[in-house]
Amino acid sequence: MTEALTERLAAIVGASQVSTDPDVLGGRSVDYTGRYRGRAAVLVRPGSAEEVAAVLTACRDAGVSVTVQGGRTSLVAGTVPEHDDVLLSTERLREIGEVDTVERRVQVGAGVTLAEVQRAATAAGLVFGVDLAARDSATVGGMASTNAGGLRTVCYGNMGEQVLGLDVVLPDGSVVHRHSQVRSDNTGYDLASLFVGAEGTLGVITGLDLRLHPSPRQRVTAICGYADLDALIATARLFRDMEGIAALELIDARASALTAEHAGVAAPVEGAWQLLIELAGETDLTDRLAEALSEAELCGEPAVGVDGGAQQRLWQVREAVADVLGVYGPPLKFDVSLPLSSISAFAAESAELIAEHAPDAIPVLFGHVGEGNLHLNIVRCTLTGDREHALYTAMMALIARHDGNVSSEHGVGTRKRDYVSMSRTDADIAAMRAVKAAFDPTGYLNPAVLFG
């Protein structure tokens, strides 16, 4: 990093928006989990798409790598720099347009948080289709870059299904505005979809046109307890394609024990496994819920919430999990997508694998069971270096043996780049590399992510 480049960046965005402070850079170079650290030379915070374009051009001309950062909630070290990079933060891209209640859409800057989009939608009587526990920190630009899923995916789909248009700055500094006012637009390549899930390797998303949805009038929420995971999976299979399904979340009782002890949020049902179900629609769906659960193999009666307060208390059981996972230090995290038929065997075999590598660790499994998208967290995991790598590699192999995908809603980042071949063929990877080379021939943009 040269002083000349730092001065050029300051000339573009203003001196107050550039920092070389070691403490600032150190705080920005650590993964959200706290397990992975990198190194950076300078932080730059552009305030417009034009400034982003100028910053990228300056860095490319200087031959310096750039790591893009949004809310920095990545769980796979997706925003951790490895090459004394320039950190390009999108946090100042914060404009929120007026909600179009007729077409049900809103244009926002990439640095707007999920919670802010949700509040804007709610104020207009609408719903945004993605929800995450990190809603107060996660930015919609980062969510699009990783094609984030979350708590409502079973109803509305992933982040990509909410994106109607994008503003993207390409690695050569050109700006693409891909928007359309029509609902069906088949004019040429679907460029917006190319950047969704690309994890910032093809360009920097600066603005988004987001789809909103009608707000359902009625909701009913339940938590059911199960002694047997296969019985829970059978219920999940029944509900996931049911009309009105709004959420379907698996909770490991070991997670509930942690939330009860450390967050004061206890599960209202017994059983080794719990299933949170929410139905939503224009009419009361309580009878439909009861009928669907009538044949389920439950541990006692389900806990049901019809009014908002009761529903919120039930949701706390699921959402409190994220708050307590770090109580014994940074957990080792796995984001995995599995066929429903493989979940029970994977749960048992992964627990055995963890016991073999880290006998004192606690495996905690939870997630979006409707899509088979689960989060395995190894709590009280003190492994580092080669021992951690050995467990991580063994777990990736186990996922592949169960016909799973080594990455689901969190992306590949830098943590999983060595395992992409377990879920993608050589031809797939070659095609992705060809796209990357076409957009970014020198490979300076997010160089550590996806391919490494």
TrEMBL record:
SUPFAM superfamilies: FAD-binding/transporter-associated domain-like, FAD-linked oxidases, C-terminal domain. GO terms for biological process: respiratory electron transport chain. Pfam families: FAD-oxidase_C, FAD_binding_4. Its cofactor is FAD. It comes from the Bacteria. Keywords: FAD, Flavoprotein, Oxidoreductase. Residues 36-215 form the FAD-binding PCMH-type domain. One of its GO terms (molecular function) is oxidoreductase activity. Belongs to the FAD-binding oxidoreductase/transferase type 4 family. This is Oxidoreductase. It comes from Mycolicibacterium psychrotolerans. The lineage of its organism: Bacteria, Bacillati, Actinomycetota, Actinomycetes, Mycobacteriales.
